[in-house]
Structures are given as structure tokens and as C-alpha cells.
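INPUT
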Amino acid sequence: MAMSDNRPETIEPTEAQKKAQRRRSIAIGVVLAAFVVIVYVGSWAKMGAALFDRQM
Amino acid sequence: MALVENIESNEARISEALPGDYFALLKPRVMSLVVFTAFVGMMMAPGHINPLTALIAILAIAVGGGASGALNMWYDADIDAVMTRTKKRPIPAGKIARGEALAFGLTLSVFAVLTLGTLTNWVAGGLLAFTIFFYAVIYTMWLKRSTPQNIVIGGAAGAFPPMIGWAAVTGSVSLESVILFLIIFLWTPPHFWALALFKLRDYDMAHVPMLPNVAGERHTKLQIVAYSVVLTGVAILPWPLGFAGPVYGTVAILLGLNFLRHAWAVWRMDDGDATMVPAKKLFGFSLVYLASLFSVLLAEALVSMALAW
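OUTPUT
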């Protein structure tokens, strides 16, 4: 049996599919980063200086 | 890697969906109305809210409203595929799989409700959760396919945003926010039945029981006039109840009279009229009517805030 027969069957995405996937990945990254900023800014707006007022 | 099932050939392929297709699942045009009315409710509410908190709260309400749109598109993909108005939506167009839309809608719903609840208060968070539930389950899954009164009760989902905005500031539900709710709630039936009149064949093909294809055109026109009379009366209430000024009162009366004129023209329209011009005019004017009322309410709220400063 040839070596190549043991390799799992894969599908090679087209350029359009690769491009779409890349753009989706970037969008997910941007949304997650925005959510982090929103949580930080929201906590700061809600609690003000008290946010950093913690006993060590 | 995301796979999409091709509805026509029934074969799976790698997704070519772009971020814009996911954004389309959020029904951006509906979302813009949600954002606007929620913002008006927030600005009219007595009390103070940090501007940053207000901005994030509006974003959470918008995402929550959008998430319910995605859940609607997940469930209604079969109907959307046969209606001209909706067949280019991402799921019937074969760009996004139904399961992905469901996961997308559920994830955004959870994040939107948790963000609004923790940032403002749980009355607002609870109202947003209820709105999503009402639109996705009560309207989409239950009423839409079972009763011609679907949009009367389902319209409540679109009427909640100003109440959520109000609750985000005050932490409560009051008569004022209920009136804002009622204006949108009563506006929805004449708005959608005007659309249903000239899109009758679409709803027929999709087997969606809308009033015109169940009770007939004449009965629909009567209901449009009846709802228009109640709507235009309720829309004036913010003025005598004291949470809007005389400018709003005057605009509400004048626009209300115009609304009634359009509704009357629909009533007088021949049953066999294929062009349905009066119905199309009422549909268009109803959008201007609601946007104008809420714009004046917003302007008055901003002026009184500026004067109090």
C-alpha cells in the first residue's frame, strides 16, 4: 500500500473560502477585543475610583 | 472550519460567509429602530446615568435585539426561502448554516443580557431577556404560524426597547414607559397590515396566516382604521400626562390626523386594486410617523436636560 493512501482525506479550501475564513477570524478577534474594552470601561464607569480601591 | 449545507443540492461545503453576513442576521434595520427608541426611553427617564454606562447599555440592547433577529432567522429559514422579501437572507441564500445562526443568536443573547444586567440593573436585564424570549419563542415559534393576530401580540417585542432604556436609568417600570411601549405596540398592526396587504401573495406562498389572507382585505382595512384611531389617541397622551411638552402634543395631533387620513384612504381602496398605492403610502408614512414622534420626544428631553444644567 502506498504511503499516500494512509493520509486522511482532506479538502483544500478555495481562495475565496480561505479569504472568508481569514475575515471571519479577524472579526471574531475584533469583537472579543471590543468586549474586553467594554467590560473594562463599564466597570470603571460603574465603580469609579472604587474599582482600584482594594486592600492589598 | 465552518460548513454550510447547500439547500438546493443538499451537499456540505466550506463556508464563504463574510462577517457582513453574520451582521445581516442581526436585522440591522430593525436594530436601528431598537437603538433609537431605547435611547429615547433612556433620555426621557428621570434620573442620572453615566454617559459611558448609557452607551454600553444601548449597545447591549442593540445586540440583544439583533440576537433575537438571528434566532428568528434560524427558525424561519423555511419561510424566508419562499418569500421575495426575505429569500436573500444569509440562511436561505446558503451562506450561513441554521445551526450556526442558532449558536450565534444564543451566544449574543446571553452576553447582551449579562452585560446590561450587571452594568445597569436586573430590571433592565430581565426586560431584555424577556424581549428576546418573547420575539424568538412566543412570536416566531408559536404565534407567527398559528394565528392572524400574530403581529398584534408579537409586536410587543418591538415595543419593549424604550421601556428597557427607561428601566436602565430608573430600575423600574412606570406609567410613562408603559405609554411609550403602547405607542409602538399599537403602531405595529396598522404598519404591518399595510405591508401585508400589498405583499399578500408572499405570505400566502409561505403559508403564514396574516390578517388579509385569513380574514380578507375588507376586514384588514377595518382593523387598520380601528388601530389607527386608538394609536393616534394614545400617542397624544405624553402631553396631558406631563412627560412631554406642547410641541410634542401639537406634532402628535398633526401627524395623527395625517395617519388617520392615510388609514381612511386604505379603507376606501377598492378590494380588487392591484397597485395598492394607499396601502404603500400608509406603510411609508407609518415609519415617518413613529420616527417623528420619538424624535420630538428626544428633542424635548434633551432641551429640558440642557436647561436644567
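end of record. DSSP finds 14 helices and two strands in chain B.
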